[in-house]
């Protein structure tokens, strides 16, 4: 959920947002779910020629998107909102959103109706089975943080297996998979990107990223 103030560095191979931009491509009709301050939409519109529609529940954040995205105020769990959109999209981006929802199945099922033929759904979610979280649990702790994997606003936590089950249940097929790691590992991977192939994502990933197609 894009409520934080941050910049997207397209040159950073360990940035989930840079990966989502790359997967989106140029001149696409994009639905940015939980668009927040619009950092993603702005880059897609200004640098990649995309037409961007955003969904955002916070009107103050939505106002920051004026000029490069049409924003619809509403909740990502409102099925009627998707029925009222009245258009199709080449790409739906759901970046850091599903973990904030009470019922992520609602949008995951609704997105099928909104995709154009050959359209794609792009998602990113945190990995609760990352080794630092496992170590915290081994010490008998479960502590929330202002942001990150243990963000205090998260309502769901995903492992790779539980995410796969959710997506399969909701009618999605994986086209591509990627993941990010913590900043320390990320700096090492910038110098030696081939090392990433040696890291098991279920243990080292801070975020999972998936490029999906509808099978519904």
Describe it.
With 216 residues, the chain is of the alpha/beta class. The chain has a single domain (16-214), classed as Rossmann fold (3-Layer(aba) Sandwich). The chain has 9 helices and 7 strands; from the N terminus they run H-E-H-E-H-E-H-E-H-E-H-H-E-H-H-E. It has a 7-stranded mixed sheet with strand order 3-2-1-4-5-7-6, sandwiched between helices. The model has no long low-confidence stretch (mean pLDDT 92).
What's this, in brief?
The protein is of the alpha/beta class and 216 residues long.
Question: What would you call the quaternary organization?
Answer: single chain
CATH topology: Rossmann fold
- Roughly what percent helix? 25-40%
Q: In the CATH classification, which architecture applies?
A: 3-Layer(aba) Sandwich
Instruction: Quote the beta fraction.
Output: 15-25%
Q: Enumerate the strands of the largest sheet in spatial order, edge to edge or round the barrel.
A: 3-2-1-4-5-7-6
Give the uncertain stretches in residue-range form: none
Q: How many domains, in number, for the residues?
A: 1
Shape: globular
Put simply, the count of helices is 9
CATH class: Alpha Beta
Measured between the Cα atoms of the first and last residue, the distance is 26 Å
Helix and strand sequence: HEHEHEHEHEHHEHHE
What is the CATH H-level superfamily? Vaccinia Virus protein VP39
Overall average pLDDT: 92
Gyration radius, in Å: 17 Å
Biggest beta sheet attributes: 7 strands, mixed
């Amino acid at each position: 959920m894009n409520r934080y103030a941050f910049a997207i560095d397209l040159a950073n191979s360990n940035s989930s947002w840079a990966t989502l931009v790359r997967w989106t491509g140029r001149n696409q009709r994009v639905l940015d779910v939980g668009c927040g301050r619009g950092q993603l939409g702005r880059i897609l519109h200004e640098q990649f020629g995309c037409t961007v529609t955003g969904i955002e529940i916070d009107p103050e954040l939505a106002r920051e998107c004026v000029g490069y995205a049409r924003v619809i105020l509403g909740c990502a769990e409102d099925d009627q909102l998707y029925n009222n959109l009245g258009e199709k999209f080449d790409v739906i981006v759901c970046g850091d959103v599903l973990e904030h929802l009470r019922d992520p199945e609602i949008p995951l099922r609704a997105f099928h109706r909104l995709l154009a033929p050959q359209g794609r759904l792009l998602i990113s979610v945190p990995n609760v089975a990352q080794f630092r979280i496992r170590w915290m649990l081994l010490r008998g702790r479960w502590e929330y943080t202002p942001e990150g994997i243990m963000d205090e606003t998260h309502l769901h936590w995903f492992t790779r297996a539980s995410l796969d089950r959710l997506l399969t249940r909701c009618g999605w097929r994986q086209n591509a998979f990627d993941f990010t790691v913590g900043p320390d590992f990320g700096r090492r991977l910038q110098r030696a990107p081939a090392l990433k192939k040696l890291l098991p994502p279920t243990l080292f990933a801070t975020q999972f990223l998936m490029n999906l197609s509808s099978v519904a």
